[in-house]
Amino acid sequence: MQSLARGLAVIRAFDSEHAELSLSDVARRTGLTRAAARRFLLTLTTLGYVHAADGVFSLTPRVLELGFSYLSALSLPEIAQPHLERLSRTVGESVSAAVLDGDEIVYVARVPTRRIMSVRITIGTRFPAAATSMGRVLLAGLDERRLADLLDHGLPEPRTDRTIVDAAALRRELEKVREQGWALVDGELEAGLRSVAAPLHGSGGRVVAAINVSTSATRDSVERIRDAYLPELLATAAAIDAELALV
């Protein structure tokens, strides 16, 4: 156990500001003797995790495998959750992640701040995809055949007087979402509820989930959502995408 800890300490001695280290540097940064530092560096070099040239050591790309194994074992909600928590702290609003199941979205991760809907949202809560920002993003990510299959079955009953109930109108909205890369829904799921969503992508760029920020119409205007929340949302989606690309 002690040898493993020391070996990991040697790896952690390298960072963005110390990409290349001498033997003395490694010994100093880890607290190991020069002899011990040399022994661990030689072992890591043999294993392919460290490159040595002219007395200077640096990590190789193979060291990323140590992180890949961990990321591969994580599910999408586990990867997204810490990012959602940071986003919620930044914008001060509830944020969520959902996936598409038929013509409904299913919540798979959530960070609530205050209750703004008449129903309590928990993991597993379902809503009609067509009436939600996350659903619009997910529907826009479908290929034409799958989207046509869903729309051919008809749209769900309107939730408010703002809900889009015409398939042609929904198609136009989805095309807009596809072009701009995000969706904003104002009062279509529930009166007074506004939300903005962005897609999450898996391997090959396929849309696999969506995240959103939801707020109250009495608290935030559509303009504020676009100007203040959307940039943070898109940055969070990009950060999650970067981790999903490693899985």
From TrEMBL:
Stored NCBIfam families: pcaR_pcaU
HTH iclR-type domain boundaries: 1-61
Pfam families documented for this protein: HTH_IclR, IclR_C
Protein name in the entry: Glycerol operon regulatory protein
Superkingdom, natural source: Bacteria
Species in which this protein is naturally found: Agromyces flavus
Domain called IclR-ED: residue spans: 62-246
GO biological process, one term: positive regulation of DNA-templated transcription
Keywords of the record: DNA-binding, Glycerol metabolism, Transcription, Transcription regulation
Molecular function GO labels: DNA binding; DNA-binding transcription factor activity
Described purpose of this protein according to its UniProt entry: May be an activator protein for the gylABX operon.
